[in-house]
Every structure is written in C-alpha cells, then in structure tokens.
Amino acid sequence: MGRITLFTVAGLFAATAASAVGFGFGGCYLLGMPIGEAKVTEYTANYGSYRVTVDVDTRNGLPLKMGTINFGVGAVVNFVPLFGIEGGFEMHTKYNNKAATVSGIVSYGGYEEPFYEQVLEDQVKWKMNNIYAGARFNLPFGGSVKPYADGGFLLIFGKGVALDNGAETNDYVKGTNMGVYFGFGTNVFVSKMFAISIPVKFNMPFAGTYKGYGSGYEGPGEGKLKPPAYFTFGVGTEIFVL
Fold first, then answer.
1. What DSSP letter does each residue of 97-144 carry, written as one string?
2. What is the pLDDT of residues 78-114, one digit of tens each?
3. How far apart are CA 2 and CA 163, in angstroms?
4. pTM of the model as a whole
5. What is the pLDDT of residue 160?
6. Calpha distance 103→62 (Å, rounded)
7. In this structure, what are the phi and psi dihedrals at residue 127, rounded to the nearest 5 degrees?
8. 68: closest CA among 116, 34, 40?
9. What's the rounded Cα separation, in Å, for the pair 196 and 190?
10. pLDDT for 44-80, tens place per residue?
C-alpha cells in the first residue's frame, strides 16, 4: 500500500509539472517533538472460542521523548505564484518513551475493569514512515525570503518496539494511521533556483488499527492505537527547476 501511494504521488507531480509555473524538490533534517501521549482506544482478542472487541478508556497513555534522527524528501508544484500542491515522504527513526504510569478502564458487556502498569524509561521505541500531501500557499513577500503556509493529509506507517537494554526485541506492534498536518515555512533563496528551507509543522494522527506481534509472530489480538500529536522543525534545501 505504501509503495502504491508513493508512486501515485510521484505520478501526480510528473503529470502536473509540465503545466505548472514552478516546480521544486528537496530534502531536510527534522527534529520531532511529541505532544501528548500514545493511547489505545479499542482492543480485540480471542477469549476461548469467542473473538471479543472491548472499549478502552486510556486515562493516562504513554508519552514519548523528542526524536532527533528524522529525515524528509518532497516536492512542490506551483500552479500560480501564490498557490501550489506539495507532497513527500518522511522517515522518523526513533522516539523512545518517557517513564509513565499507563492506566484506564476496559469496558465490555456492562462490565468495567481498571488496568494499571508502570512503564520505565526507554522500554519502548516508536518509529514512523510517513507520506504527506497537501496545499501550499506562498505569501506575497518580495526579496529573497519567501514564507509560505501549508496543510494537508498524512498516511502514517507506525511501529512500536519493546526494548531490552536499548536493543530492539521481537515484541512489537505495527499498523497505519491517517492524519492531518498544517504549518508554515520559509525559503531563503541564495540563487534563483536554490533555497535554504525552514519548515515547521503540527501533525495530528487519528486512531488506526494495530496488530501485536511476539517473537516475530502475530499475537492474539489487535487494537486501535492513537499516536501522540507532534511538531516537526526542519532545515534543508529546495531546488526549483521551473
């Protein structure tokens, strides 16, 4: 699914670039700052011969630390000087967890059961491969500094891995989330075609379906997991060929 979506985005840019007034591409380094907590909202598992779905009210979820090793590539097609579309791919390699107490209530069939677990620091690593696509609004500023605002949709391929003394184990969950983003940025042109890019985005994932795996095999259940929202602060380059 990820490859098909990526090829679709690439085909869209290739088909529209010929009629555009501007086409640029580039890459950047990203600093990621999670806001809030990762929370489970639903869980499905086998109980005897029955497969049961329960509601999960996660009162306190799992907070994540700042991620410092993230990278992105992308492109923008400007149809008019003030408006264009953008898209790209981001790789977020590591967000370790903070120490936390994960707690809440599981509800099913009129019954409620509390859960409570103490999670030590650096017991989980969260990573993502994200595809984004949206609109870019170029603000009408003169000179070499060109600010813009942008926003659009996210497709997030996430994975949470249990750690043992910092090393990844074969116990993990993985799945996908849709989401939205909005932000702003600035291109500082050092020549007509080459710019230093400084993007800032707020990213908000929605809950998505995740499957659990243990020792490399699919576990007994799956659930709905909502990663925390996060800011990204980047620095990179954009090259404009039109």
1. BPPEEEEEEEEETTEEEEEEEEE-TTSEEEEEEEEEEEEEEE----SS
2. 988 899 999 999 999 999 999 999 999 998 878 899 9
3. 26
4. 0.86
5. 95
6. 9
7. -140, 155
8. 34
9. 7
10. 877 667 778 889 999 999 999 999 999 999 999 998 8
